[in-house]
């Protein structure tokens, strides 16, 4: 009976929540074996607390709807004590794991000039003076510097991008979970949430968050050995190490870290030998309570060409998504970036930019940089007229891309209906719903008035357009399919 009720709760929640939320918080839950009541078990404290705060009440209501009359509770899973309904590991994350080792030995390859000469590009090239050695991981400007006078026991520190901190990261609905998880990991590196897997589209702050964790680990612990690198660099270094017969050094270096941060691991796809090596490095780090943080442009299970055992292992810790920021967050990001650049950006201008640039934060930043450069060039303060002038090429291109015609074409293609259906009087759900979505997108993405939009949809009244906008807004909150359709269409039209 409890099994059935819990399965029903899961099915219901799956239909109510965006898939990334369901995957992150509900999928890892199991049902306690011993319990008479609906006692859920979470793989770690973080998930347990989050579910208790955000979802437990809803689970209680759903369970009661299926005839359950007890209390729903949640606890952290103890080993082997639950039956899982999903594919997650049942003995995940012993919360008693200790904090990372902080004093480390410098990699042996950095000690000997001959070794570093023999593998110049394995991520650990460097000179060997006694007082300060620099071990450069030549990707993304990452450098690991070792200092100290005695050979063999040197403190090692990596230089991450110092601008990527939690303080400079703007929180919004779209990144709330990922930020909270990252802060937890930074406070308890090598602890219960290992690996941390952050996924989401381009330019949404994955690297920023990952490096913020690295910076925080080092701020709390200046001797921690943290290395950030792009997955392509890991592959390139490994290939070099293989060619130069220097795999032992390669392994020793990576396995000696307190925290390994690898960006964009989708590039591991189809690189079998690198996956094999990474798999072993990854296991060694996890076993040693060393923190692993990974980013990817998609959910682990969706990476084609990645071994199943790696996909499954990536899910052992915590998997969190970052999504495109909403309008308020985009405005807040712009204000923050302007403040960092010590530039006065009127709220109205920030709002204008945020409304027009919606695809990702990198583009938003790029637009702001153009505006700032323009203002400095002509020596005038920023206002909306200046913004329009500075971004005019971009805006013109965008206007072309998000014309009502193009929206109709894209929506028709997406729902596999004819463009003429959108203009027609047909009222069947399969036509009326896409029509409403197309109207709402036209209102959101173009500067056209309601009557103009109505005209473009077979001469409809402006109240019909208004109704469509309201309906779609409501459906995006209650219906997962529409929510996903709308955000897919938005992405297609604005990137
Ligand atoms: N919430 C945020 N607050 C402040 N800055 C942000 C935020 N999100 C992203 N950024 C900024 O946007 C830029 C792009 O972010 P980042 O490089 O982290 O994206 P990404 O998700 O790693 O992209 P990619 O998949 O292309 O590597 C960075 O300059 C980063 O500082």
From TrEMBL:
Record's keyword terms, sorted: ATP-binding, Cytoplasm, DNA replication, DNA-binding, Lipid-binding, Nucleotide-binding
A molecular-function term among this protein's GO annotations: lipid binding
Region of interest called Disordered, as start-end residue ranges on this chain: 83-149
Pfam family for this entry, one: DnaA_N
Main location: cytoplasm
Alphabetized SUPFAM superfamilies for the sequence: P-loop containing nucleoside triphosphate hydrolases, TrpR-like
GO biological process, one term: regulation of DNA replication
Span list, region Domain IV, binds dsDNA: 376-495
Residue ranges of every copy of the AAA+ ATPase domain listed in the record: 192-322
Positions of ATP binding: 203, 205-207
Compositionally biased intervals (Low complexity): 83-114
Keyword match Nucleotide-binding: yes
Gene3D superfamilies tied to this protein: 1.10.1750.10, 1.10.8.60, 3.30.300.180, P-loop containing nucleotide triphosphate hydrolases
GO cellular component, one term: plasma membrane
Family: Belongs to the DnaA family.
PANTHER family membership: CHROMOSOMAL REPLICATION INITIATOR PROTEIN DNAA
Oligomer status and interactors: Oligomerizes as a right-handed, spiral filament on DNA at oriC.
Protein name: Chromosomal replication initiator protein DnaA
Organism, scientific name: Reinekea blandensis MED297
């Amino acid at each position: 009976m409890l099994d059935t009720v819990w399965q029903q709760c899961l099915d219901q929640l799956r239909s109510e929540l965006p898939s990334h939320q369901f995957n992150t918080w509900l999928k890892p839950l199991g049902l306690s074996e011993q319990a008479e009541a609906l006692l859920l078990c979470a793989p770690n404290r973080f998930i347990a607390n989050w579910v208790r705060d955000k979802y437990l009440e809803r689970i209680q209501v759903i369970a009661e709807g299926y005839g359950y009359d007890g209390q729903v509770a949640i606890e952290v899973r103890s080993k082997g004590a639950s039956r899982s309904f999903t594919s997650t590991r049942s003995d995940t994350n012993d919360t008693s794991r200790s904090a990372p080792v902080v004093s480390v030995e410098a990699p042996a390859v950095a000690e000997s000039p001959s070794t570093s000469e023999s593998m110049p590009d394995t991520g650990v090239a460097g000179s060997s003076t006694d007082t300060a050695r620099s071990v450069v991981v030549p990707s993304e400007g990452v450098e690991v510097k070792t200092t100290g006078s005695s050979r063999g026991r040197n403190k090692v520190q990596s230089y991450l991008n110092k601008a990527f901190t939690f303080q400079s990261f703007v929180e919004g609905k779209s990144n709330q979970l990922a930020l909270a998880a990252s802060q937890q990991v930074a406070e308890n590196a090598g602890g219960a949430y290992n690996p941390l897997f952050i996924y989401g589209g381009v330019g949404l702050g994955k690297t920023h968050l990952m490096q913020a964790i690295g910076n925080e680990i080092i701020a709390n612990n200046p001797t921690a050995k943290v290395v950030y690198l792009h997955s392509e660099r890991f592959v390139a270094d490994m290939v070099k190490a293989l060619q130069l017969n220097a795999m032992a050094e390669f392994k020793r270096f990576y396995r000696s870290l307190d925290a390994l941060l690898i960006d964009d691991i989708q590039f591991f796809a189809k690189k079998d030998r690198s996956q094999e090596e990474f798999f072993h490095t990854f296991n060694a780090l996890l076993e040693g309570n060393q923190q692993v943080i990974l980013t990817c442009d998609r959910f682990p299970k969706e990476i084609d060409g990645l071994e199943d055992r790696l996909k499954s292992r990536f899910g052992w810790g915590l998997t969190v998504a970052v999504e495109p920021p909403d309008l308020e967050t985009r405005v807040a990001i712009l204000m923050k970036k302007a403040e960092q650049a010590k530039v006065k950006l009127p709220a109205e201008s920030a709002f204008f930019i945020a409304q027009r640039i919606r695809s990702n934060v990198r583009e938003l930043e790029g637009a702001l940089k153009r505006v700032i450069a323009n203002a400095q060039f002509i020596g005038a303060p920023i206002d909306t007229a200046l913004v329009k002038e500075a971004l005019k090429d971009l805006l013109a291109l965008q206007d072309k891309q998000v014309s009502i015609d193009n929206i109709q074409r894209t929506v028709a293609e997406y729902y596999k209906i004819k463009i003429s259906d959108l203009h027609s009087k047909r009222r069947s759900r399969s036509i009326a719903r896409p029509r409403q979505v197309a109207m709402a997108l036209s209102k959101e993405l173009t500067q056209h008035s309601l009557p103009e939009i109505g005209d473009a949809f077979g001469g409809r009244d402006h109240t019909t357009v208004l109704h469509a906008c309201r309906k779609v807004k409501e459906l995006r909150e209650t219906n997962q399919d529409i929510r996903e359709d709308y955000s897919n269409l938005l992405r297609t039209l604005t990137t």
